[in-house]
Design a protein that fits this description.
The two termini are 42 Å apart. This protein is mostly helical. It is built from 20 helices and no strands.
Length: 421
């Protein structure tokens, strides 16, 4: 018989989610349609399911542009308009399929409620992960802080799919540490709907699972991804080429690239392309050093630090990132806030959280040009994270996120993996 405690928690979560959906629909989406980033994805899903159209087709792209701007996309940078391309792998259609049969007002209310709930769930998972025992008032403050934090709030405003992706990454990390390996694998598979912000994290965690005999992580990830992709190719056989064609055009009209490129091309232009490649190589070198300690030397106390570096490097060297993706930095920030709280300085911890949040909002508002987000907003969190990680690896080593007794099956699998390496 199932644990009644979990049944009660699930029921309460369902009621809470329904309440968020009702609030979003009643007071926001039915009166003030928005979440433009989500609209382009929903438009493609709805076009495929309801009208039988290829979501990557020019017809669907034009319909999104006409809805968003009242006319076809205008490349004038001052207008801050983007093509209405679907732009994601086709298995996003499978993920969002239930919403494709609804009105946009209801679909966007459900999507925004889901993102909000995932952000709150991630906060709870991270304080569990780092063994941060909070009072109820502190818990309430923390939840409000996460939802109002600039990257999260902007992600909710846009309905950014990237927020869902990084939330799935945090779910996977938490699940790994709790030995919920199937959940971890499925969550990582779901994160592939935006592969450029998942590939390094997935690669590291799959190699770690192989090295330490966590076969169910690899199996659940592989099976989930094969099912996603298999069904996608059955439904639209040519989607991969169409998606890659849209992705290839993406960098031609986006105005902000990776944080490393922003530094070397905008703020320190004397560094140029050579400086960009040098910094990128150094960051990747630090990441590989962490991987080497964990995977080759089998020193699991470096796991959390190597993972944090992988997250930071991913967001720093991407061809194109977005500030809503920075929700993933909660993994790093909450770790350091936990260290402050461990010094029995709750006031200092709360103050640090407030100051950081206000600083990011002030930066955004003071550099806003019309409706265009300044490139400066992409720099503080990656730079702060890499500096802290380089200065305090000893703190991460003490966290011992995965240092739990393995099961017998995992021990046998780990011995088998060692014999192959």
């Amino acid at each position: 018989m199932r644990n009644p405690r979990w049944i009660i928690i699930a029921a309460m979560t369902g009621v809470f989610f329904a309440a968020i959906v009702w609030g979003m629909y009643t007071f926001v989406t039915s009166k003030y349609p928005g979440a433009n980033d989500f609209f382009q994805r929903w438009n493609g899903v709805q076009a495929y399911l309801m009208r039988g159209l290829d979501p990557y087709s020019p017809t669907v792209t034009l319909s999104a542009e006409n809805y968003l701007y009242g006319h076809p996309y205008d490349p004038n940078p001052q207008l801050d308009e983007y093509p209405g391309d679907f732009l994601y792998p086709f298995h996003l259609v499978l993920l969002l399929a239930p919403l494709g049969f609804m009105s946009y007002a209801l679909a966007s209310a459900i999507w925004l409620a889901l993102l909000s709930l995932l952000i709150m769930l991630n906060f709870w998972m991270l304080i569990q992960l780092f063994k941060w025992r909070m009072s109820l008032p502190m818990m309430a403050f923390g939840i409000i802080w996460t939802l109002s934090f600039y990257p999260a709030a902007r992600g909710l405003f846009l309905g950014q799919v990237g927020v869902f992706v990084v939330c799935m990454q945090i779910v996977a990390i938490w699940a790994l540490t709790q030995r919920h390996d199937v959940l971890a694998g499925v969550a990582l598979a779901l994160s592939t709907v935006k592969p450029q912000i998942s590939i390094l994290i997935i690669l590291f965690l799959m190699l770690w699972a192989l090295r330490f005999g966590r076969g169910r992580v690899m199996l659940s990830f592989g099976v989930s991804l094969i099912v996603w992709l298999g069904v996608s190719f059955v439904m639209v056989p040519g989607w991969l080429g169409e998606w890659l064609a849209q992705a290839a055009q993406y960098t031609n009209y986006t105005r902000v690239s990776s944080p490393v490129e922003i530094v070397t091309q905008i703020y320190l232009p004397f560094l140029g392309v050579v400086g960009q490649w040098v910094i990128t190589t150094l960051l990747l070198g630090v990441m590989i050093l962490g991987w080497w300690r964990v995977l080759w030397k089998r020193d699991e106390v470096w796991f959390a630090w190597a993972l944090a570096v992988t997250i930071t490097v991913t967001q720093s060297v991407l061809i194109r990132t977005a500030t809503p993706h920075y929700v993933i930095f909660f993994f790093i920030l909450i770790f350091y806030f936990r260290q402050l709280a461990g010094l029995r300085s709750t006031l200092i911890t709360v103050s640090a959280m407030i100051v950081l949040s206000i600083a990011l909002w002030v930066l955004f508002l003071s550099t806003l040009n019309s409706r265009i987000e300044s490139a400066a907003n992409f720099l503080p969190l990656p730079i702060l994270s890499i500096v802290l990680l380089l200065l305090t690896p000893h703190l991460w080593r003490k966290s011992n996120l995965v240092m739990q007794p393995p099961t017998t099956a995992e021990t046998v699998a780990a011995h088998a993996a060692r014999s192959l390496v």
